[in-house]
Amino acid sequence: MTHLSIFEIIMLLCFGAAWPVALLKSYRSRTNAGKSVGFLYVIFIGYVAGVLHKLFFTMDAVIILYALNGLMVLADILLYYRNARLMSLSRKGVIHHAP
Asked: pTM above the 0.85 mark?
């Protein structure tokens, strides 16, 4: 175990605080307006890299924050594809878009 970096923890907590709001918005809106799945993948890869760094070089409790944030981004990626499917079905008239 190494020492914990307070600045790394603050950064991850700040980023992590934003994801639940983004997830809720994605879930409720049922659209991908303003979303970029490419951006989400870049962020997800960054969190995976953070986890791998912790596993291989500086294992400490901060790995939990990387993993938690990564899981939230993964959930947003999954919602992106769900919303794309819902939008497609709505355009075909199979379902009605509910606000």
From this structure: yes
